Amino acid sequence: MVTFFVVGLLVHIVFFVSIFDIYFTSPLVHGMTPQYVPLPPPAKRLVLFVADGLRADSFYKPHVNGSTRVPFLRNIIEKKGMWGISHTRVPTESRPGHVALIAGFYEDVSAVAKGWKENPVEFDSVFNESRHTWSWGSPDILPMFAKGATGDHVYTHSYPAVNEDFASTDASTLDTWVFDEVKAFFKYAKENETLLSRLHQDQNVFFLHLLGLDTNGHAHRPLSAEYMDNIGLVDAGIAEIVSIVEEFFGHDDSTAYIFTSDHGMTSWGSHGAGLPSETLTPLVAWGAGVQAAQRDISQHYEDDYMREWKLDTLKRVDVNQADIAPLMSSLIGVPIPLNSVGVLPLNYLNNTQRFKAESMYANSIQILEQFKVKMSQKKETTLSFLFTPFPFFYRAMLSVGLIVLAGWPIVSGLTEKSKVTTNQTLSWILSCLCLALFPLMPVVGREPNVTLKSHTSTQERSSDFFLPGCVLCVCMATVALCAYVLTSTHSSLQRKEGLPLVNQIISWSTLISSFVVPLLSSTRLFHRLLSILLSLVSTFLLLSTGCEALFPPVLSCLMFVWINIEQEALQSKGLCLFKTLQLSSTDFSDSIDITKIRQLRLDDIRRSYFFVFFIIMAFFGTGNIASINSFDPASVYCFLTVFNPFIMGALMMWKVLIPFVIVMCTFESIQVSTQLSSRSLFLIVLVISDLMALHFFFLVQDYGSWLDIGTSISHYVIVMSMTIFLMVLSVFTHILTSKRILVGRRMKMHFR
């Protein structure tokens, strides 16, 4: 048995690792020759402003009174520079957005090995090709360009990571910090001859990363007053920086300016997918080498905010986000980044036809060099005829499966052959149908709604579901407390009062106690299951932002009905060795007599299939996996608001596992009450999970948003590791259901 387990484990590890070798190898290639334009560039230096998280419509749309939020940049658009829309690509996140802007290529799928936090493969960038680059902004963005640069010419100035607090009253202070630091930098440069000399060299870049809008958008939503006011602050700050730069360099007309954004965001304050509000960002360029504003009465815009801003007569030039990198390179005369896929937007250049032709030629050769190297690599490693499209997963099919399962007691004849009551049959059908609603709900794309309403209902009493009144009171009190904490926390954040300390203490206490409280209750089947449910539902509620909070109660209701129906079905066929055994008297702590464990039967395969289906439903039914792969910190606001990816990720992962634990505890109950062999169970689950793994292997995708890529990987990993994970989790659920902490007179604690 040990040999079988070890061999099976090794095979599954090989299968798991194979997707990263097949799907997630870096598309970046190396060994290309830099391409230079043999003509003097129009600008000596470039100032790049990136307003993180700024939507195009929020930037261009005027106030309700018709005035503009960005008077300085509006004046640039009308008189001095070119403007348009920069079309970003998924995933619409800060790191890949800045890589596209500054390096000219889109998301490298091999970044999955680094948790999407950095690129594991070295890449070229405009900063790397520059003579010197000075940058100010977030510690999450600046270091990755300095880390990959050759030499020591990229300088970073960033604030502490703790400043990125989603509960802050006004995150625009992050942008104010950047502007103040830049002003202090130029003031200091006047007194430092070495720095002054470097600043007057050509091919220099100044990068201002402005994170306030993104943080305010997450915390207060992009239609809030905080977000809109932050846009005005950015415009005023840019105006001041431009004035300082021009004065510092003596108005030499050798400075080019570009203002844009890495991505937008949805109206509910998240991003990572591909909605227009996430992929459309503003672009404004002016200064040395940039075409001045042009009139074009022939164009008409479909965007309402464009018409409202009265830009109909101004020529608008839209670009792809990666096109900005070759534009910046051409303006200051450095080679286009070697890995760039951007195409130089000629309409933004104000130069001779020869300069434009030479620039386009260098751009074309640079892209061709990549193609040649990539083609050579593909010829050595690819068998193209083996790769065919596969239809890439529909959560709604889980709803179809639940609708089919709803008819199981009737179709199988259990209502006639056994003691399965009409109430139990109706409870099964209603629970299945209610649970079938969750896969139909969107996993992302909804505004968090934490308004909870308490409903009371009268249920028919049944001897199988009799619960002590005190337990019900504790259940209602705990859920009510968590509901209060949830609503009061989000209300406090909306009032910009931060996360209340009392709420944070209650939330963490509830989470920690959820592992202990079940061990203090009776080990009787329904008493222990209720205690586990109470603890898990309370924690899940604190981690919820909407209707998914109802998922564990509905799932638990279905699980309770399943336990009763399975017991009745087994007794009706005369297979239960203890026919007089009632579920109300079943005790998890009772040792199982191995000699009385029955042999595997055909009906047990059906039980195992139900178990695997409910496990899949627990993982994918509410879209919790997708919520991890799409960044929305609102679900952990009851626990913390300061950005901490490890703690936030752990909390979200526990939210994913809670429905899983409920199903595992339920099957533990069925295993105990029906004398089902655990070894036989895992052999059946192994076969089913491997068949599903083969299906999900072909569904893995290496393009699209993090939501799409991460979800496809999660599906495959979960199914591949299901057997091993179930074996580990079964030990946890066995302790959770059968062990009890007894507190004696001397308060000594031990396992029963």
Question: Which tags fit this structure?
Answer:
Alkaline_phosphatase_core_sf, disordered C terminus, GPI ethanolamine phosphate transferase 1, 752 residues, glycoprotein, two-stranded antiparallel sheet
Percent range for β-strand residues: 5-15%
Mean pLDDT: 81
Q: Radius of gyration in whole Å, from Cα?
A: 31 Å
- Enumerate how many helices there are, as a single number: 29
Distance between the termini: 30 Å
Textual characterization of the structure:
The protein is of the alpha/beta class. The chain has 29 helices and 10 strands. The chain has helices at 2-22, 56-60, 71-79, 94-103, 126-129, 142-147, 173-189, 193-199, 212-220, 225-248, 276-279, 304-308, 324-332, 353-381, 396-406, 408-411, 414-417, 422-435, 469-494, 501-513, 517-520, 525-542, 551-572, 602-620, 624-629, 645-674, 678-697, 706-720, 722-738, and strands at residues 45-51, 82-87, 132-137, 154-158, 204-210, 255-260, 280-287, 319-320, 741-743, 749-751. The strands form 2 sheets. The protein has an 8-stranded mixed β-sheet with strand order 4-3-5-1-6-7-2-8, sandwiched between helices. A two-stranded antiparallel sheet has the order 9-10. Strand 9 and strand 10 form a beta hairpin. The protein is elongated. Mean pLDDT is 81; it is low at 452-469 and 745-752.
Question: What is the topological layout?
Answer:
Layout: H1 2-22, E1 45-51, H2 56-60, H3 71-79, E2 82-87, H4 94-103, H5 126-129, E3 132-137, H6 142-147, E4 154-158, H7 173-189, H8 193-199, E5 204-210, H9 212-220, H10 225-248, E6 255-260, H11 276-279, E7 280-287, H12 304-308, E8 319-320, H13 324-332, H14 353-381, H15 396-406, H16 408-411, H17 414-417, H18 422-435, H19 469-494, H20 501-513, H21 517-520, H22 525-542, H23 551-572, H24 602-620, H25 624-629, H26 645-674, H27 678-697, H28 706-720, H29 722-738, E9 741-743, E10 749-751
Parallel strand pairs: 1-5, 1-6, 2-8, 3-4, 3-5
Antiparallel strand pairs: 2-7, 6-7, 9-10
Helix pairs in contact: 7-10, 9-10, 15-18, 18-23, 19-20, 19-22, 20-22, 22-26, 23-26, 24-26, 24-27, 26-29, 27-28, 27-29
